[in-house]
Amino acid sequence: MNKILTLCFVFVTIEMFSQIEEKPINYKKINFVYETKSNYFIDENGIYADSLLIKLDFPEIKFTTVNELIENKNYNSFIPLKHLKGSNIKKLCGILYHTNQKFIGEYDAEKNETNYRIERNDELTKKIFKNILKERYSNFFYKKVIKFSKNKIHLNYPSVNYTFTITEKAKNIIMENQVIGRYKEVVNNIEFSNVVLLNINLDSKIMPDDFFTNNNYGVEVIKKLNATTILKSVKYY
Question: Does the predicted model carry a pTM greater than 0.70?
Answer without folding.
Answer: yes
